[in-house]
Design goal:
By secondary structure, this protein is of the alpha/beta class. It has a single domain, classed as TIM Barrel (Alpha-Beta Barrel). The protein is built from 15 helices and nine strands. Strands 1, 2, 3, 4, 5, 6, 7, 8 and 9 form a nine-stranded parallel beta sheet that branches. Helix 2 runs antiparallel to helix 3, helix 5 crosses helix 6 and helix 7 runs parallel beside helix 8. The longest helix has 18 residues. About 6% of the residues have low confidence.
Length: 379
């Protein structure tokens, strides 16, 4: 059929498109095959009942309750240093395989005394994984960057080995204390020379109070560390504490982080304030529909922000958990909102300006898109 051929061609084009990923959680991006293998090992050790999670892991159309069941499994898996290293290595390889040329991975450093894990040792395990990627060249430190080093994209038709810039965001979990949040910011500062580039605030949106994390976020601001905040993430109708929390959303907008994640559940005044602030928004379509933050793809707030020319970046959130990919998210934008290839390309290109990396990296990324544009959009 003509339609299926057109769909196939567009999907392939979206894979070949050079892309920038700014909102990807490490643990939520684990491969299903890896998850199955590791869960089987935990089952054999009696840590979990493998049969309870086996079917959920193998599904591609998980319900929200099933996704939450996997979150519990992620937390168990990531108390092991070698597992963390393996996951980090595979996640980078998977993003690079679909022509992501710049990737910011966010993860919550974990303290687990019983497992001999500290926040620092957890992050060392992540960095070890990034350094052990073999199939592509991972540019993790700015000091490794030469002027002629730019990630390659399939759009250019170049057979050179692919390069991908990878940076790390340390997440403050909303369950943490002020002291623990401050520890995370200080660790980010200590690991700046190892690819750590920013701070994220995330976690269950009905847990915790804004005032608890504010000192840590202000500390990051004082240190010159960029921040991104999950804001108005989802509406949990069954929760006693309703999300969105109007007071918290207002406080987040007033804080003026460098970027905001999701921003699903804003009221008219908050939308106005967001648009006037021009704070870039990390858009995660599949995730927002799955979690109830958006009623459907067609009614997603992407269209409103895009038409208002608000700064946007298309992202995955949890590619493994929600059975998606960045290429698929771009395809969904095209098929749902009727964007042309040129408009999609400009959307991907625009995300370069919102990365937390320095100007040299931005310059190299701009060159990737300029080269791709000359070869694919000139006709």
């Amino acid at each position: 059929m003509e339609t299926s051929e057109a769909e196939k061609e567009m999907r392939e084009w979206c894979v070949a498109l050079p892309k920038v990923e700014l909102h990807a959680h490490l643990n939520g991006s684990v491969r299903n095959s890896t998850l199955l293998e590791l869960a089987k090992e935990l089952g054999d050790k009696g840590v979990i009942v493998f049969e309870d999670v086996k079917d959920v892991i193998m599904k591609n159309d998980r319900s929200l309750p099933e996704c939450f069941r996997l979150f519990d499994l992620f937390h168990i898996l990531t108390t092991d240093h070698d597992t963390v290293t393996r996951i980090a290595k595979e996640v980078v390889g998977d993003f690079a395989a679909e022509n992501v040329v710049y990737l910011e991975i966010r993860t919550t450093p974990k303290n687990n005394e019983a497992k001999g894990m500290t926040k620092r040792s957890y992050m060392n395990a992540v960095v070890k994984g990034l350094k052990s990627v073999e199939d592509v060249d991972v540019v993790l430190f700015d000091s490794n960057l030469r002027n002629d080093e730019t990630p390659m994209s399939d759009l250019s038709g170049d057979t050179k080995r692919k390069k991908i810039y990878v940076r790390l965001l340390l997440s403050i979990d909303r369950r943490e204390t002020t002291s623990a949040a401050l520890d995370t910011v200080n660790l980010a500062m200590e690991m700046k020379d190892q690819g750590v580039i920013g701070i994220d605030l995330s976690g269950n949106p009905v847990v915790g109070e804004w005032e608890t994390y504010l000192p840590a976020l202000e500390h990051a601001k004082d240190l010159g560390i960029p921040t991104t905040i999950h804001c108005g993430e989802m509406k949990l109708e069954l929760s006693e504490q309703q999300v969105p929390n109007r007071k918290e959303i207002q406080a987040m907008l007033d804080f003026c982080p460098q970027r905001l994640g999701h921003v699903c559940c804003l009221d008219d005044e908050e939308w106005k304030k967001l648009k006037s602030s021009m704070i870039p928004v990390e858009i995660c379509l599949t995730s927002n529909v799955m979690t109830g933050g958006a009623p459907s793809l067609e009614l997603h707030h992407f269209a409103d922000l895009y038409n208002a020319k608000h700064p946007l970046s298309i992202c995955t959130d949890d590619s493994g958990l929600f059975s998606t990919s960045l290429s698929n998210e771009y395809y969904l934008v095209a098929s749902t909102f009727g964007l042309s290839k040129t408009e999609l390309f400009r959307l991907a290109q625009g995300a370069v300006e919102f990365v937390f990396a320095d100007d040299e990296v931005k310059k190299s990324l701009r060159a990737v898109f300029e080269r791709a544009a000359a070869e694919t959009l000139a006709s």
